[in-house]
Amino acid sequence: MSQAQRLRQTIEDEIVAGHLAVGARLDEVMLAERFGVSRTPIREALLQLAVTGLVETKPRKGTIVSAPEPQHLLAMFETMAELEAACGRFAARRLTPDHEAALKAALAACEASAAAGDTEGYYAENQVFHAVVYGACRNAFLAEQARLLSRRLAPYRRLQLRTRHRLGQSLAEHAGIVAAILAGDDAAAAERLRTHVVVQGDRFSDLVAGLRSLGDAP
Q1: Res 96 pLDDT > 50
Q2: CA 213 vs CA 25, 46, 109: distances in Å
Q3: Cα(28)–Cα(18) distance, rounded to whole angstroms?
Q4: What is the Cα–Cα distance from 59 to 122, expressed in whole angstroms?
Q5: Distance, CA of 171 to CA of 177 (rounded, Å)
Q6: Residue 116, SS3 per DSSP
Q7: What count of other Cβ atoms lies within 10 Å of the Cβ of residue 205?
Q8: Helix runs in the chain, H state only
Q9: Do residues 192 and 62 lie in contact, with contact meaning Cβ atoms separated by under 8 Å?
Q10: Is the dihedral of CA 27, 33, 34, 35 positive or negative?
Q11: Are 144 and 88 in contact (CB under 8 A)?
């Protein structure tokens, strides 16, 4: 990762963990001094965070920590679910031996992190798993659109994994997705990915509660 990307991830971690509360001001000079870097990578990192909606720039306030409106977040997850469903459908139809091997390896890595109880490790392997599905669809434009929106939703998908029992549920869903793709069942692959990604009912309520808790953190 570039310096700006590493800084973005560090600041993102602090926001999601609640160390930087909603409404907190992110001063470029203070952050540059804290991390021992120039203001340029700090500015780039904040711009990347603004794309996800985790920070926003307001007149006379500068850059502050923010959280998306629940309905906007729901709309993004609904769109992501449809993009991933399409990727899964094409992957089931077009799977190559190389992509099959990559898919199995990605699932095994997720299983290893889950067995170790490593939530952060699972989050990283989860990203790899979905990237493999995008590649396996063999539609470059669709894969790129999925990657772009996935990057925007990354902090919220990460937050969702921290809710109780979600990691185990996610792993079971991964296994079902892989089984459908390997079987060439495009309808099942699409539906399982759609269900895996979309947040509804209790899952959406838990995600919104997690976002709200960021603002309540000390």
Answers
A1: yes
A2: 18, 22, 31
A3: 20
A4: 39
A5: 10
A6: coil
A7: 13
A8: 3-17, 28-35, 39-52, 70-94, 97-115, 119-136, 140-161, 166-182, 186-197, 201-216
A9: no
A10: positive
A11: no
For residues 52 and 155, is the Cβ–Cβ distance under 8 A? yes
Neighbours of 5 (CB within 10 A): 13
| Rounded CA separation 155/13 (Å) | 8
The three-state secondary structure class of 63 is: strand
User: What are 64's strand-pairing partners?
Assistant: 25, 56
* Angle between helix 97-115 and helix 119-136 axes, rounded to 10 deg: 170
Exposure on the CB side of residue 81, measured as CA atoms within 13 A:
15
**148 closest CA partner among 74, 60, 218, 84:** 84
Token pair, residue 75, equals 């709309």
Q: Would you give the distance in Å from CA 202 to the centre of its chain? A: 19
CA 72 from chain centre, in angstroms, equals 16
What confidence tens digit (pLDDT) does each residue in 143-200 have? 999 998 988 787 777 777 777 778 899 999 999 999 999 999 999 999 999 999 987 6
Q: CB count, 10 Å around CB of 70?
A: 14
